[in-house]
Amino acid sequence: MTDVPAALTAEQVSAKWAAIAPLIDKLNDRTDDKDDFDVHPRSSLARDDEWADPYHVSHAVKACIVAGVDHLHAVKVLIVDAQTVHVAAPASLVRGCLENISAAYWILHPASRAERVTRCLRWHMQNAKDQHKAIHRLALPDYKPQDERIAKIVAVAERHRGIDVKSVERGYSSTAVVTYADKHVDSRLGVLTPWQLCSGFAHGRPWANLSFSEREEHPTSDPNVMVVRFSTDLTRALYLVRAAMNLTQDLLQMHQQRSRPQY
Question: Is the pTM of this model over 0.90?
Answer without folding.
Answer: yes
